[in-house]
């Protein structure tokens, strides 16, 4: 192997799980990797902890300011050589055979530039709480309108932590900073129109589920929903010629239904402000087909 796999681990106040994430990389069955630790302005002692890693395969980068997760990733990818890039989040762990499996998949599917696999869910203590599907099935997603519409209906089914992507694709289609909560979803939609993706149904990453994570906080407050709406709206506008009116209606119906359920859950938890925010976004999804039918073709001509 001429160029090692580049493993990027973005960090923001990553204690206490950070050491587990890094240890899982050192435990890989294949030693040909380079680890890039990117601290995005931590204040919890993570910066000091990173200075203890002296292995020549490890590079530590301290951002001059807080760029956010997707801003950090977009900047770091520009510095990497042309090679495969694995991304792992600070709360998660790669299984020891992660790299071995991903490199085998890349060799088996040389026309594909983006891979991800099933996951196991672990709790705050690192104990298994939900085992992912393990059929060994490979699913190749062909780029084009059909896959793109499916993702508009379903939301983000791609998992960034444990993803394995060629750096050329990440440079061609970089993450966007203006979607701090849903940058993965925006990236997925753009990729589905341009490149083949492969899903491997074998758990290779352990994703930590706990109340202190940024993702849990976003879900609890509903901060992800306005961004998700904006992404769907802008995709419908930009690629209006790919969609029929009925497809837009179906997309919005499928996206609005779970938001209403989340709003009901927020009310039950005594969070009426969150419920109102969610219901407002559900209403916006309900109105989007009308907006599309009135002005989609005009808007599309501007892009």
Assigned CATH class of the largest domain? Alpha Beta
Distance between the termini: 42 Å
Portion in strands: 15-25%
Number of domains: 2
Radius of gyration equals 20 Å
Q: Please give the number of β-strands.
A: 10
Helical amount = 40-55%
Tell me the overall shape.
Answer: globular
Low-confidence stretches: 297-303
Question: Residue-averaged pLDDT, rounded?
Answer: 92
Number of helices: 11
Largest sheet: 10 strands, mixed
Please identify the structural class as seen in this structure.
Answer: alpha/beta
CATH architecture of the largest domain: Alpha-Beta Complex
Q: Briefly note the CATH topology name of the largest domain.
A: Spore Coat Polysaccharide Biosynthesis Protein SpsA, Chain A
H/E order of the elements? EHEHEHEEHEEEHEHHEHHHH
CATH superfamily of the largest domain: Spore Coat Polysaccharide Biosynthesis Protein SpsA, Chain A
Defining traits:
single chain; 303 residues; alpha/beta; Spore Coat Polysaccharide Biosynthesis Protein SpsA, Chain A; 2 domains; ten-stranded mixed beta sheet; 11 helices; 10 strands; globular
Write up what this structure looks like.
This protein is of the alpha/beta class and 303 residues long. The chain folds into two domains: 5-214, Spore Coat Polysaccharide Biosynthesis Protein SpsA, Chain A, CATH 3.90.550; 222-300. It is built from eleven helices and ten strands. Strands 1, 2, 3, 4, 5, 6, 7, 8, 9 and 10 form a ten-stranded mixed beta sheet that branches. The longest helix is centred in the C-terminal third of the chain and has 29 residues, at 272-300. The protein is globular and about 60 Å long. Mean pLDDT is 92; it is low at 297-303.
